[in-house]
Design goal:
Blueprint lengths: L8 E4 L2 H11 L3 E6 L6 E6 L2 E7 L1 H6 L3 E5 L3 H11 L12 E2 L5 E6 L4 E6 L1
Parallel strand pairs: 1-4, 5-8
Antiparallel strand pairs: 2-3, 3-4, 6-7, 7-8
Length: about 120
């Protein structure tokens, strides 16, 4: 059995919230979008990572995922986000912190999703 990537799907009540987080803040690009349907969605991509965002109010109420992005330069990622979107920094992990398991981490969150950035 061989897998080449995982593509998470995230549900939002309002797709524009996800686009603010992933496109405006994290600089993903929109690879595909289908916004004028009963179930709007987008496929986003950055650095070989793909994420699908769906607009579905019911599923958004049921699912609150957390994603982890691993990086080789967490300080650079932190500075870019802290300068451009400080309101997204998670109050419990709003600075780069060495965790008990040895990884450096910080986190952001919007109304639907938490993202933890990690450097080993």
């Amino acid at each position: 059995m061989n897998f080449t990537k995982v593509v998470p799907g995230v549900f939002y009540s309002d797709l524009s919230d996800g686009l603010k987080l992933f496109v405006a803040c994290l600089q993903f690009t929109i690879e595909h979008k289908d916004l004028n349907t009963s179930q709007p969605y987008c496929v986003l991509r950055k650095d070989g990572i793909s994420i699908m965002l769906f607009q579905d109010e019911q599923l958004a109420k049921e699912h609150n995922p957390e994603l982890r992005f691993v990086t080789d330069n967490i300080e650079e990622v932190y500075m870019k986000i802290a300068l451009s979107h400080p309101h997204l920094l998670h109050p419990n992990l709003n600075k780069v912190t060495v965790r008990p398991w040895g990884a450096k981490e910080f986190a952001i969150a919007d109304s639907q999703l938490g993202i933890r950035f990690q450097q080993w």
